[in-house]
Amino acid sequence: MKGGKLIIFSAPSGSGKTTIVRHLLEQSDLNLAFSISATSRPRRGKEKHGEHYYFMSLSEFKKHIKNDDFLEWEEVYRDNFYGTLKSEVERLWAEGKNVIFDIDVVGGLRIKKKFPDQTLAVFVKPPSVDELKIRLKKRSTESDDKINMRIAKASVELATAPQFDRIIKNYDLDTALKEAHDLVADFLKTKA
């Protein structure tokens, strides 16, 4: 696989990475396209196949693992697999786009390791774990047990921040959005 640039945004759930990635996708000067992840978890709310995720059964996901169809994959929670299909990245590169990811920390670091020169890996750091809990509760999409699982996982994820190329502290959204844009724009100017 060889193509354009890869921009990874990783963070604990509720840190604001999805908001930042959506903002960057709206900036035409960056020529970005979103890499849709595959998952074995059930759909939530109004999520659509091929727009939010490629939803697969557990057996279908495991078949793709066996066939080496993923650039990276991870069992994030028990029987909830997430991964990046190689075909998805190749499709976006064929369109002449730079690929942006909203991905968990383990997957993000795996892509960075495979493509060190053409990848910018950014960690979005929340104000605090308490603030994360407040943000997750406001979503009203998951049970308290699921939220507590995400909070427990956040502590582990926060410890990986130094392994990323850059850390954006999302204490103020407008500041974080500007910092993310400037960071990505500068990276896209460099040679891979």
UniProtKB/TrEMBL annotation:
One of its GO terms (cellular component) is cytosol. Its main location: cytoplasm. SUPFAM superfamilies: P-loop containing nucleoside triphosphate hydrolases (SSF52540). InterPro entries: GK/Ca_channel_bsu (IPR008145), Guanylate_kin-like_dom (IPR008144), Guanylate_kinase (IPR017665), Guanylate_kinase_CS (IPR020590), P-loop_NTPase (IPR027417). Pfam families: Guanylate_kin (PF00625). It is found in: Cytoplasm. The keyword ATP-binding applies. GO terms for molecular function: ATP binding; GMP kinase activity. It catalyses: GMP + ATP = GDP + ADP. Keywords: ATP-binding, Cytoplasm, Kinase, Nucleotide-binding, Transferase. ATP binds at A11, P12, S13, G14, S15, G16, K17, T18. The keyword Acyltransferase does not apply. Its EC number is 2.7.4.8. Coiled coil: none annotated. It is an enzyme of class 2 (transferase). Residues 4-185 form the Guanylate kinase-like domain. PANTHER family: GUANYLATE KINASE (PTHR23117:SF13), GUANYLATE KINASE-RELATED (PTHR23117). Essential for recycling GMP and indirectly, cGMP. NCBIfam families: guanyl_kin. This is Guanylate kinase. It comes from Cellulophaga tyrosinoxydans. The lineage of its organism: Bacteria, Pseudomonadati, Bacteroidota, Flavobacteriia, Flavobacteriales.
